[in-house]
Amino acid sequence: MRGEQKVVPEVVVAATSQRLELNIKDVGPLAVVGRIVSFLLGLWLVLLAGNSQAAILPEDRSDVMYHGYDGGGLEVVGPSVLVRKGYKDMISIWGNYYVDTITSASIDVVTTASEYEEEREEVSIGVDYLHGKTFMGLSYTNSEESDYSANSVRFGISQDFFGDLTTLGISYARGWDEVSRNGDATFLEDTDRQSYRVDLTQIITKSLIMNLNYEGLTDEGFLNNPYRQVRYLDSGAALGYSYEAEIYPRTKTSSATAVRAMYYLPYRASLKAEARYYTDTWGTDAWNVELAYVHPLAKGITLEVKYRFYDQTAADFYSDLFDREQAQNFLARDKELATYTTHTFGAGISYEFAVPWVSFLKRAEASLFVDYIFFDYEDFRDARVTGVAPGSEPLYDFDSIVTRAYISVWY
Amino acid sequence: MLQRILYTSCLLAVVLSSGCSSMELKPWVSPYERNNLADPIMSFNRSPIASAYMHHVYQAREGARGAEGGSGGGCGCN
Asked: Per-residue pLDDT tens for A158-210?
C-alpha cells in the first residue's frame, strides 16, 4: 500500500516564487543539518554573484478582518487582526491574532455524533530582516482549541539577484501538535510536522512575472480525527451497516508544486493564473487551476473576480462503505480523502481612501470578498438517507459561502 | 545527488561572476521598465490577511496542501 511511509534519504530541492525551500524527507537529524548547511553554501555561491539594488521590506500596515464560512452544516466565523511595523528599513515585526468560532452540524457530525460548538484561537508573531538583497524571516505560531494544540516555527531566507529579476528563497518549518479527545482524559497523542519549501520568482517581461513553488511536507504521529468513524456492512444492524473508528497510517509525506503567473494588461488590469499538482504517500493525487482578474476603476475602487477548479483522487485506504468490520489495516471515511471536485467562483471589491483626520495614516482601504464553493463527491454517499440499500444512497454534494470583510490601513 | 547540486552551483557561480562578456547573460528588464510590475494589482499576495484565510479554508476542506506561497510578486522584490 502506498500509505506505508518509506524512509527516503534524499534532499529534494525545488524552486518557487518568493521564498526558496529545501525539502528533506525523513533522514536523521545530523544528516539533515549537514545537508541543509551544504545546500545553503552551494546555493550562496550562486546567489552572491554580484548585485547592487536593494530589496525592500513589506509595507507597514494593519488589517482587521471578519471572516465567515457557511456550508455543509458547518459555520465558522471570527476576527483576524494582522499588524506589521518596520524599523529603519531593516527589520519588520508582525503579529496576527485569529479566531475560529465553529458551529458544526456537518454530515459527519449528524450521522455519527451530535452538533457541537467550539472555538480555536491562533496567535502568530514574526520578524523579517533585510540585509542588502538578502531577506530573512522567522515566525512562531500557536493554535489552541479544546482538543488540539499546535505550535510551529518557520525560518525562511531569500535572495534577489540577476539585476533583481530573480528572487530565490528557501524555508523550513517544524510543528509540534498535541491531539486529545474531549470526554476522554486518558487520550493524548503527538504529531510532528516538517515543511521544506523552495520558491523562485522570475520577471519574464515588462508585464509578466512568474513564480514556481515547491513544498514537501512530512507528518509523523497521530494523523486521524479521534472522533471520525468509518462504516461497514453489518447484516445484524437495523440500517444494514455499523460504524467503527478510523485508523490512519502514522506517517505521511506530501509534495506540492505550483506555478503562478501575473500579467499586466494594456489598460491597467491584471490577470493571474495558477496551477498546482499535489501527491502524497496515502495515494491522494490532486491538482487545481485558478484564473483571477483584477480591474481598478476610478476613485480608488478595484474589482476582482476569480474561478478555481480543484480535483482529487481518494486515499488508498478510503472507502464509503467497507465490506466488513476491520476490513483492512488502515480505514478512512473522511470526505476530504474521497474522490471529488470543487468549483470556486469569487468576486470582491476594494475601496481605497485617504484618512486626513489621522495624521500618521498614509491611506486606508475597505474590502469585501465573497466566494461560492461547490463540492461534488464521486464516492462519498449521503448516509443521512435511510430506507435504501447500504451503498446506494445518493452521492453527497454541498455548497458553501466564504466571506472576507476587512479594513486595511498603511502608516 | 547533493554533490551534483553543489558542483552545479559552483559552476554556475563561476559562470555568473566571470565577467566573460561572450557568456554573460544580462538582465533584460531594466529597473526603469518595471512600472507595470510594481503596480499593486500585480502582487501575488495583494492582501496577506485574506490570502492566509483562503489558504486555511482550502487546507481544511481539501486533501491537498502546500505550495500555497506566491507571496510578494509585483516588482520582484519582497
From this structure: 999 888 899 999 999 999 999 999 989 999 999 999 999 999 999 999 999 99
Which residue ranges make up each domain of chain A?
10-410
Nearest to A402 by CA among B50, B64, B70, B69: B50
Residue A379 near residue A320, CB atoms below 8 Å:
yes
For residue A13, the distance in angstroms to the closest alpha carbon of chain B comes to 9
CA distance B50 to chain A (A): 7
pLDDT at position A50, please?
41
Query: For residue A371, what are the CA distances in angstroms to A69, A100, A276?
Result: 9, 18, 20
Specify the pLDDT at position B14. Answer: 53
B22: closest CA of chain A, how far (Å): 17
Residues 9-68 of B with CB under 8 A from A: 9-10, 12-13, 16-17, 25-31, 33-34, 36-37, 39, 41-44, 46-50, 52-54, 57-58, 61-68
Q: Is the pLDDT of residue A243 over 80?
A: yes
**Contacts of residue A203 in chain B, CB cutoff 8 Å?**
29, 34, 37, 76
Q: Do B73 and A211 touch (CB under 8 A)?
A: yes
Do residue B57 and residue A45 have CB atoms under 8 angstroms apart? no
Asked whether the whole model's pTM tops 0.90, one would answer no
- ipTM confidence: 0.85
Rounded to an integer, the average pLDDT of A265-274 is 96
The CATH architecture one would assign to domain A10-410 is Beta Barrel (2.40)
Distance CA A246, CA A224 (A): 7
